[in-house]
Amino acid sequence: MKLEGKVLVAQGGGPTAVINQSLVGAVLESRKFQQVTKVYGAINGVAGIINEDFIDLTQETTHNLEQVAKTPSSALFSTRDKPDEKYCKEMFDVMRAHDIRYFFYIGGNDSADTVRIVNEYAEISGYEFRAIHIPKTIDNDLTVNDHTPGYGSAAKFVSQAFIGINLDVRALPGIYIGIVMGRHAGFLTAASSLAQKYPDDGPHLIYLPERPFSLEKFIQDVKKVYDRYGRCIVAVSEGIADETGTPIAVKLMKHIEKDAHGNVNLSGGSLGQLLADHVKEKLNIKRVRSDTFGYLQRSFIGCVSDVDQHEAREVGEKAAQFAIWHNLDGSITIHRTGYYSVDYRLTNLHEVAGKTKIMPDEFINREGNNVTDAFKFYARPLLGTDMPSADRLRAPKVPKILKKE
Amino acid sequence: MKLEGKVLVAQGGGPTAVINQSLVGAVLESRKFQQVTKVYGAINGVAGIINEDFIDLTQETTHNLEQVAKTPSSALFSTRDKPDEKYCKEMFDVMRAHDIRYFFYIGGNDSADTVRIVNEYAEISGYEFRAIHIPKTIDNDLTVNDHTPGYGSAAKFVSQAFIGINLDVRALPGIYIGIVMGRHAGFLTAASSLAQKYPDDGPHLIYLPERPFSLEKFIQDVKKVYDRYGRCIVAVSEGIADETGTPIAVKLMKHIEKDAHGNVNLSGGSLGQLLADHVKEKLNIKRVRSDTFGYLQRSFIGCVSDVDQHEAREVGEKAAQFAIWHNLDGSITIHRTGYYSVDYRLTNLHEVAGKTKIMPDEFINREGNNVTDAFKFYARPLLGTDMPSADRLRAPKVPKILKKE
Q1: Distance (Å, rounded) from C-alpha A176 to C-alpha A161?
Q2: Is the dihedral of CA B374, B377, B383, B386 positive or negative?
Q3: Partner B contacted by A385 (CB < 8 A)
Q4: Which ipTM score applies to this complex?
Q5: Residue B269 pLDDT more than 80?
Q6: Number of other residues whose CB lies within 10 A of the CB of residue A384
Q7: How far apart are CA A310 and CA A314, in angstroms?
Q8: How buried is A360 (Cβ within 10 angstroms: 0-12 exposed, 13-18 middle, 19+ buried)?
Q9: Which of B29, B227, B379, B400 is the most exposed place for a label (fewest CB within 10 A)?
Q10: Is residue B284 helix, strand or coil?
Q11: What residues does each domain of chain A span?
Q12: Is the CB of residue B232 less than 8 Å from the CB of residue B226?
């Protein structure tokens, strides 16, 4: 029984370097099926569905789709709307009016939840409808999945950034603190560890939201590394908090306020700057620098993992196949089958929707200030086959003649 | 008359993505001359010369040198020391003790000045000595030179970053402010303009240290762009200042202090954050974001201009040839001979040492909030032959059926 009708694809949440691979995979695969009358794209994710802002991707050239696939960030644009029941009902009404029978939503765990609710309306209404969630998030925090499309490329950016920082801080020594995205899951920050090649390479310390952060311990850790190497490179998740769940930035602001007898910091100094100031003050080290990687890490063009690209493409294609070929609903999930190989399965939406995965204990060291080799083994293949590498001079020292001082 | 003796190479100042190309060019070319007895490298620039911290690069494998050439940031490490006369005299004494007859210093205008002073000591002392400055700076601010090695690769990073930001802010609209390095010269910030492909692409506004910055005009400019496109992307040099020369960050801090009746901002909120807060307050726009590109832009591995690589290599080789083959002193300078071709000349150290070039007037638009096509024409070839490109969907809109609201 072939279900005839239209396909609708949408993209939600933050951009990734490979989110358009999934879009193009779903579109091109859908266009191959005779029962698919049109392939639409919704502009601005779920918001575009409510507003009937559709474009007809059946009329897009295959070549341009391939060019778009290589371009980072949602080509259909995105939204931060998190639909409630009423919103989902409206979405469903619009889709029914347009004879949309297949809905593919590329996004994170909130997007999976949207797909779940819309699908329930279709079932209640007796409307024949297939809905599939296509995974995407640089946070790598979707349950069931071994990892998620978008993570590998962002991880590659973070790792390449820290390779450069290693070289920079080795040439001009000091302390460096890099703030990486990740409010709840530390996977992206942990990817900084893949910048290590030589035994004294940084990041020497990695702080993740999965572990409570202590300012006292942090200063001790930094001092220990600095005393040993004359430099210290630190990767910090933006989401670090203390044992009570208070964000460290808030905590440091309070310290400052207290010191200044009630004066308020109005510009909301960044976590990186606050940590750098704290280190300067406590350790009396002059050269302490920080960067907040910010938006660069999630949509940087030209820094993409080929493995991530391939997988993002396939989850898009798989969505079309499961829905149109097999008449199934669900969430596409990635499963590791070898080192390194993967397979794609269809998982019940309930198992992914609205849930968050964090770093497992075996990926974090006992002290809670670094990752384990198990994490590196897990993450390395996701960065792809063309990671650049740094090399050092190894020439022998020349004996001194004047031997002053 | 062949001058027999040792070669010494050193690197100074901030790192670039191609500074080791110049090092390896100078080392490999020097090793070809029979009158060169050894090729030394000074660890930590001029500081390493004072301390006799040399390594013997004659004993480095050619293959490893080639690997190091592809690695960003000074492989010999660097220093922020700016030698005075006494310091230069000490450097000269050490070099004489080690029978160093050829000195190549890779760096900016301060490094050129060091070379100049050391060379004067050699002349006064009647010591046969050739000293050459090899240009390097991401700021692109050396006089005489059409451009400088290191600039093209940093410019490529900035341009690629803004391509991603364009896509990101188009998918999730708002205002974005990116702070780029450059205290006195705006060349690196101006390179953001090369991210523009489509007519509505950003950065829509570019503010350079060459023009006084007015907060009122800035808000007007941003509003105009935002009203037109529903988004606004801004590139700002870290060095912007008002007509009196007061840095804008300092000025904004004072605004905040005044508003808060004397409360002091202790964490020194970044320029980007301060500008973003200012826009939020004045235009009442919710989504205003900022990034400070920071250290990522000068040593990011895997984002390098091939043109920059070739030129950095050649200025290193040329230094060795001018000094050893022709017995000359000076600064290697790059001259544009076609579109796009260059030639290298030897320039008197006095013409480069301690001097700073800024953006010429014809590169900046009349309003002082963007660059001209003349700049883009100038800068584009320096980014190299493999700049990635962003593509957009062009599918037609679907007519609405429900036409709600």
Answers
A1: 12
A2: positive
A3: no
A4: 0.95
A5: no
A6: 18
A7: 6
A8: exposed
A9: B227
A10: coil
A11: 5-149+303-351, 152-301+361-383
A12: yes
Query: CA-to-CA distance for B46 and B13, rounded, in angstroms?
Result: 10
Residue with tokens 């027999």: B4
pLDDT in tens, B169-216: 999 999 999 999 999 999 999 999 999 999 999 999 999 999 999 999
Residues 41-60 of A with CB under 8 A from B: 41, 51-60
* CA A214/CA B380 separation, integer angstroms: 48
Same fold, A5-149+303-351 and A152-301+361-383: yes
B139 has catalytic annotation: yes
Distance from CA of A79 to the nearest CA of B (A): 6
pLDDT at B263 over 70: no
Answer whether A300 sits within 8 Å of B164, measured CB to CB: yes
Give Cα A41 to chain centroid, integer Å: 23
- Ordered alpha helix ranges (H), A143-295: 151-171, 187-190, 215-229, 248-259, 271-283
H helix intervals, A100-175: 109-125, 151-171
What pLDDT is stored for residue A221 in this prediction? 98
Which one of the listed residues B110, B113, B139, B141 is annotated catalytic?
Answer: B139
CA atoms within 13 A on the CB side of A404: 11
Whether B263 and chain A come into contact, CB under 8 Å, resolves to: yes
**Least confident range of A206-210, A246-250, B133-137, B259-263:** B259-263
Q: For residue B156, what are the β-bridge partners?
A: none
- Model confidence over A68-81: pLDDT tens digits? 999 999 999 999 99
Q: What is the DSSP letter of A273?
A: H
Q: Is B53 within 8 Å of B76 (Cβ atoms)? A: no
A270 pLDDT tier (thresholds 50, 70, 90): confident
Amino acid identity at B124: I
Nearest-Cα distance to chain A for B56, in Å, is 6
Q: Which of B334, B369, B370 is nearest to B151 (CA)?
A: B334
- Do A35 and A2 touch, CB atoms closer than 8 A? yes
Between B230 and B253, name the one with better pLDDT: B230
Q: What is the mean pLDDT of chain A?
A: 94
Tokens (6 digits) for A226: 């600095």
Residue type, A355: K
State the architecture of A5-149+303-351 in CATH terms.
3-Layer(aba) Sandwich (3.40)
CB A178 within 8 A of CB A290: yes
Q: Which residue numbers of A belong to the known binding site for Mg(2+)?
A: 109
Question: A295, B291: Cβ pair inside 8 Å?
Answer: yes
Residue A306 touches partner B, C-beta closer than 8 Å: no
Q: Does residue B214 belong to the interface with chain A, where contact is any CB pair within 8 Å?
A: no
How are the residues of chain A apportioned to helix, strand and coil, as percentages rounded to the nearest 5? Answer: 40, 20, 40
Q: What percent of chain B has pLDDT over 90?
A: 92
Burial class (CB in 10 A: 0-12, 13-18, 19+), B50: buried
Per CATH, the homologous superfamily of domain B152-301+361-383 is Phosphofructokinase domain (3.40.50.460)
Q: Between residues 64 and 83 of chain A, which touch chain B (CB distance below 8 Å)? A: 64-65, 67-68, 70-80
Q: Quick one: pLDDT at residue B264?
A: 40
Q: What pLDDT, on the 0 to 100 scale, is given for residue B342?
A: 98
Tell me if chain A has a CB within 8 Å of the CB of B404: yes
Residues 6+ apart with CB under 8 A from B360: none
Q: Is the pLDDT of residue B267 over 70?
A: no
Task: Name A67's Cβ contacts closer than 8 Å, sequence gap at least 6.
Answer: B391
Exposed / middle / buried, residue B280 (Cβ in 10 Å: 0-12, 13-18, 19+): middle
| CB neighbour burial string for A169-207, b if at least 16 within 10 angstroms, e if fewer | bbbbbbbbbbbbbbebbbbbbbbbbbbbeeeebbbbbbb
